[in-house]
Amino acid sequence: MRIWSVHPRYLDRQALIAGWRETLLAQAVLAGRTKGYRNHPQLDRFRTADDPVATVGAYLARLADEADARGYRFDRSRIDRTDPADALSVTEGQLVFERGHLAAKFAVRSPDLLPALPQRLEPHPLFTVVPGDIEDWERP
């Protein structure tokens, strides 16, 4: 499961679609609808929110916005809640790590996109950047 901290505009088609599917799974876990993936470390940051289901819904809504901008059709009816959610934090080190991870994926499946990938990536709109190394929940 990869729930990207970087802004969805940087994701290639495969990462955007996979991120949507995987975050829908995360939503199901946080809502208590499935027993699988309950202990997945990527969910830790959502669990710290006052309302994890609303927070993951806000994350999904931004992915759907990016899909709309590209002419894709993500089914927004699958988002449980679209209430406003508090911002979560993400460390600078995590964004640097994810940039490298994304660049490695581009090198294999979307090499034409690699030259346009900036060195510094903005976070997903749900996240506020704070100083720090790679997040504790990341499994490099």
Quick recap:
The protein is mostly helical. The protein has one domain. 41% of the residues lie in helices and 6% in strands.
Furnish the topology, listing elements before pairings:
Elements: H1 13-30, H2 44-47, H3 52-69, E1 88-91, H4 92-109, E2 127-130
Parallel strand pairs: 1-2
Written overview of the protein:
This protein is mainly alpha-helical. The chain has one domain. 41% of the residues lie in helices and 6% in strands. It is built from four helices and two strands; from the N terminus they run αααβαβ. A two-stranded parallel ribbon has the order 1-2. It is globular and about 40 Å long. The chain starts with 12 loop residues before the first helix and ends in a 10-residue tail after the last strand. The mean pLDDT is 93.
Mean pLDDT: 93
Residues in helix, %: 40-55%
User: Count of helices?
Assistant: 4
Parts with pLDDT < 50 across at least 5 consecutive residues: none
The SSE order reads HHHEHE
Tell how many strands the DSSP assignment holds: 2
Radius of gyration using CA atoms only:
14 Å
Shape: globular
Distance between the termini: 13 Å
Query: How would a textbook summarize the main sheet?
Result: 2 strands, parallel
Structural class: mainly alpha
Q: Approximately what portion of the residues adopt beta-strand conformation?
A: 5-15%
| Spatial strand arrangement across the major sheet | 1-2
Counting structural domains, the number is 1
GO molecular function: lyase activity
InterPro entries: Pyr-dimer_DNA_glycosylase
Protein name: DNA lyase
Keywords: Lyase
